[in-house]
User: Fold this.
Amino acid sequence: MMTSHASSSSSRGTMQSENPLRGEKMADTHDPDTPQTGKKAGFSLGRIIPLALLAAGLAAFFIFDLNQYVSLDALKTHRETLQSWVANYGTMTAVIFMGIYALAVAFSVPGAVFITIAGGFMFGPYRGTIYVVIGATVGAVGVFLAVKYALGEMLRAKAGPAIKRMEAGFRENEMSYLLILRLVPLFPFWLVNLVPAFLGVSLRTYTIGTLLGIIPGAFVYALVGDGAGAVLDAGGDLNLGIIFEPRFLAPIIGLAVLACIPIVYKKIKGSKDVQSS
Assistant:
């Protein structure tokens, strides 16, 4: 009996001496100071490659003088060829058009409005709008992902308190803010492609907000393109400032105001909650 008791005591003592070691190992495993991934948000060559490719595309656009094809003069010169392509190779021409538009947006090529007008001229206002919106959304998503992957984490890690507060406020109503930026024709398209990536907007929200927000503007310029043939035949000039005319600007501003409603509602509701508490 004494031998058995001594043996059990020895066994418990051994287990007690082992348990602290196990506890130390578990503590080491969950030590908050121990890096879990071994990586820190910062600059790396691999992250910058997508952004470098987009920059190279923009440089190639000017090096090979492709900007000569993004103008009203180019549309006037090649309009018969464009119409022939649509008549003979309608589906393939539409796919190529959307691909070109996506690349133009991804490379931040100036003068995308002329491509929109060409879309309306080639396909009419409705199909032209659809093709423009698809191409522009694909290109914008490409820019968003490249910038977010290359610089987003690093910039947010180095951001000061003011930037972090702005990011928190933007993300609280990110869909509404994004729709406003897309709808109001005062903000450059390329800039609106970049800012959400820096502010941590989700890919889903960015895609939906871009897709919906660019429809009104795309439709207005597709309408311009639809009537471009008759205007050019008469020797007239297309009105590129048409989107600022009240008949078009007023509905777009109205949509932007509607997009503000969720933001205003949350602000009012939040202030009431604070007062009641």
